[in-house]
Amino acid sequence: MTPVAVDQIFVTTKHLLMGYVPAFWQPLASAILSVVPVLVVFPALFAVTTVLERKGLGRIQNRLGPNRVGPFGFLQPAADGIKSLTKEDVVPRDADKVVHFLAPILLVLASFIVYAVLPIGRNMVIADLNSGLLFFFAVGSMVELAVFMAGWSSRSKYSLLGAMRAVAQMISYEIPLVLAAVVVIMAAGSLSLPAIAEMQSGYTWIWPHWYVLTPWGFAGFVLFMISATAESNRSPFDLPEGESEIIAGYYIEYSGFKFALFFLGEYLGMFATSGLAITLFLGGWSAPFSFLTWVPSYLWFFAKLLVLIAAFIWVRGTFPRLRMDQLMGFAWKFMLPMTLVNVVDAGLWHFMPSGVVRGVVCAAVIVIPFALFSRRAQEGKKLQIRTYRYAE
Amino acid sequence: MSLFFLITAAIAIGGTLAAMTRRNPIHCILSLALGLVGVAGVYLALGAQFVGFTQILVYVGAVAILATFALMMTQGHIVSALIEPRRAFSRSSVSGFVTAAGVFSVLGWAAQSYRPLTPSTQQAPAAGAKEVGVALMHTYVLPLEVIGVLLTAALIGAVVIALPSEEERS
Amino acid sequence: MTPLNLFLLLSALLFSIGLAGALTRRNAILVLIGIELMLNAANINLIAFWRFGPNPEALTGVMFAIFSISVAAAEAAVGLAIILAVYRHNKTTNLNQIDTLKG
Known about the structure:
The structure holds three protein chains of three kinds. By secondary structure, chain A is an all-alpha fold. Chain A has helices at 3-7, 9-18, 26-60, 76-86, 97-113, 132-140, 142-153, 157-188, 193-199, 215-231, 243-246, 256-281, 297-318, 324-351, 356-378, and strands spanning 203-204, 207-208. Chain A has one domain. Helices cover 66% and strands 1% of the residues of chain A. In chain A, helix 3 packs parallel to helix 13 (297-318), helix 5 (97-113) packs antiparallel against helix 7 (142-153) and helix 5 runs parallel beside helix 12. By secondary structure, chain C is mainly alpha-helical. The mean pLDDT of chain C is 84. Chains B and C meet through helix 1, helix 2, helix 3, helix 5 and helix 6 of B and helix 1, helix 2 and helix 3 of C.
């Protein structure tokens, strides 16, 4: 088979299968054939990621991690799944039963719907909406409501505290998240994610036209990934579920399968924002070098996704948790100004003639404010080894 | 299109009705969010994709969350204080319902008897992100700037109003 | 009855629901929400007239709806801030008890 045939194998298979479906059922069959792979692949990725994360964290913390179930412990998610399915489903007596039941469902639903606009390969997207990016952020904002519902309906002060923390954090970091994505919209001139991926699929000599290779694109990518970490409530921004303070945050009162649903929703959200970062900055499904274009596009997408997941795990194993005021101050005093500077930088890039001068000027426009902001953030802070008065 | 419209209209009406009748304010806000998603669906049925997604982003993502935050910061910590007492039909609530029913009868009569002077266009016009963006940046650039100033003023104003004053803080 | 009439009827119904809520609820936050609902009903009207009007290329209704949504967001932010300030002063958001100016 030619590389193109392998690349398009899923698309052609779908067309082939659609040929056997009567015309009346075709819209439904098309939807099912597009949606079911996403419903299978990403939860499977979730299962693999939980093992990889626990093993990776174990390696970072100088221990083994799960190694009992199956070869190298890789059947651990199956054991976890059986455990959570057979556990008793405890609902607190005073809980708001309906809202308590709906919260995990809304969370998982919102996390799944988002995949409708993500191109996971050439011509492989469920719905090519012309305002797809807006759809992504709109549906993503429903997660906040689900988190609030979970925390409030449990009638527990820990879950309410966790929910308030989570919502405040997600609202604060949504602004830099959207503003970091704006630079790509400015460059691509489109809100459609397949079109944005298509824009980056060209090559100059062997180098791809990825936006991350420009000064504003690199800064935007870093800012976007920091905001995405905060949006998906992962360490070092995991205050909403900080185990040492409020036990598990907004889903403390959930048990059994609903707890597993929260876990699933959180990881699906992480994959979705990583996928969005890949589409916006890392060229989506395009190959990193022009001589590697024979590798199928969907493999590139998932390879990039796994790299980003590894980065997430690495960050989680490395950084300590922030304090609440540090978290908010970081969002409003550093992330927001930096993303605004980045928007100006992208505009400058657009209007300057291309050449070395443009690269130097645009890099300076982003590096100088970064130095100023980070210096101001360090002012008044005594950076030294802490002495604890009451511990030890 | 008509089935989609019927479903979204039912969601919109059901959600907003629940939002205005439930006794627990948190339930009200949650069902309002549902109703406004229904309204966004109605926009989609009308072919206004951009406005529909903006509606979800602004109302579900911001206004509903803001309202829950306001509830939590006012009396949300006491669950029993949240729930409004079941009251008999007081004079003010009856007059409120009568007024609303009167307004609906007039508006509904006007709505169903309206006949357009010019024939309507049959196929849905293009209102994608591109068309909206071009219109915002060309014909409507001045209103866009005014809205930007308004939003900034509202942001600063909201922070100033909500901040505790000096003597309250001490 | 044309499709336009259906949309106008829906908008009239939503407006009346919002009005009934704003007139009968006692909690200031819920009154604000009723007002938001009335604004939304107006937006449905704007978009319906744009869609079925004689000149949809101009995007007038869509633009008006977008600006109206932004104004509604600003209004919600300021309104809720005012409610917070009032609560801090009166320790209630029940509109029946906020009657200091009543003669």
